[in-house]
Design goal:
The chain is an alpha+beta fold. The chain is built from six helices and 18 strands.
Length: 296
């Protein structure tokens, strides 16, 4: 009974807030933002288990990582990290996560980026840079199923630019001197990279005092809204198109966003800048618009 009472408990993860530019101060360390499932590895007297960001036990899905965790040289720990589906070059492939969890769990990997407990000691109050040092000592050389999230100190803008050039989702920056705090805090921030792609314009939402927005689809599926900040001549031609089209609402658009939308009908394509790695358009803005082969 005493052993049962001593089992380690899941810690609500610390989460970064979204910022549009990486911190420039030398007091920050910067890591790649891995595209996978946030996971906590916990080891105690009963063995290792893998827990989701909401506290659900997914150990059976991640059994090869569980085996690797139990081989680490520690009696107990709580490690924070990301479960990913790495490609041969190491890049995470989020779209492969579910199939590997179901059929090829040995092709998953756990990227460790923080540690909150080790062999009876609470590490959460230590500075982040000291926690990472202890984490590295535990998981090194980190070339197998359990990997280590390398970081750089300072030079946030350069690290972000390199990450963007590699086509990765973005970076997470952590204040080196900060303790581990559950929930969203400004001690951890994420800076996501941008993509530009073409989307089909479905409709326009104009409200007094607010930025005009367009509703967009990709391959016929609604993907979200983007601010329309193109030049005045393009806007005027777009408004004429709205008046002429008098189109009906297309299927698949959520009812929560359809109020006061003027539908344009098919045929207008927009070049949209948006945050990379999101399921819907986020912080998106229209760069250009075209009607068939001509600009709007």
């Amino acid at each position: 009974m005493s052993n049962a009472a001593a089992r380690l408990k899941f810690i609500k993860p610390q989460e970064p807030i979204l910022v549009l530019e990486a911190p420039v101060s030398d007091d920050w360390l910067h890591e790649i933002k891995y595209d996978g499932f946030r996971t906590q590895l916990i080891l105690d007297w009963a063995g290792a288990r893998a827990v989701t960001r909401t506290g659900i036990d997914w150990s059976k899905r991640y059994w090869p990582v569980i085996d690797a965790a139990e081989k680490l040289a520690a009696k107990s720990f709580i490690i924070d990290g990301e479960m990913i589906a790495p490609e041969p070059d190491g890049r995470p492939n989020f779209h492969a996560m579910h199939s590997r969890m179901a059929w090829n769990a040995e092709l998953l990997a756990f990227v460790a980026f923080d540690i909150m407990h080790l062999d009876g000691h609470d590490l959460g109050t230590l500075p982040a840079v000291e926690r990472k040092a202890q984490l590295w000592e535990l998981v090194k050389p980190a070339t197998g199923m359990i990997q280590y999230s390398q970081h750089v100190a300072g030079n946030g803008a350069e690290f972000y630019a390199a990450t963007d050039k590699m086509g990765l989702e973005g970076i997470v920056s952590k204040r080196q001197s900060a303790a581990y705090h559950s929930g969203k805090t400004d001690y951890w921030v994420k800076t996501k990279c941008w993509d530009v792609a073409d989307f089909e314009l479905l409709g326009i939402k104009r409200e007094p005092g607010k930025i005009t927005e367009g509703l967009f689809a990709k391959d016929g599926k609604y993907v979200g809204k983007a601010a329309i900040a193109v030049n005045r001549s393009i806007k005027e031609r777009l408004w004429r198109r709205v008046e002429q089209a008098r189109a009906r609402q297309p299927p698949g658009v959520p009812t929560a966003v359809v109020d006061d939308v003027e539908w344009v009908g098919p045929g207008i394509t927009a070049s949209v800048r948006y945050l990379r790695g999101e399921s819907k358009l986020r912080h998106a803005s229209v760069q250009d618009m075209r009607e068939k082969d001509d600009a709007v």
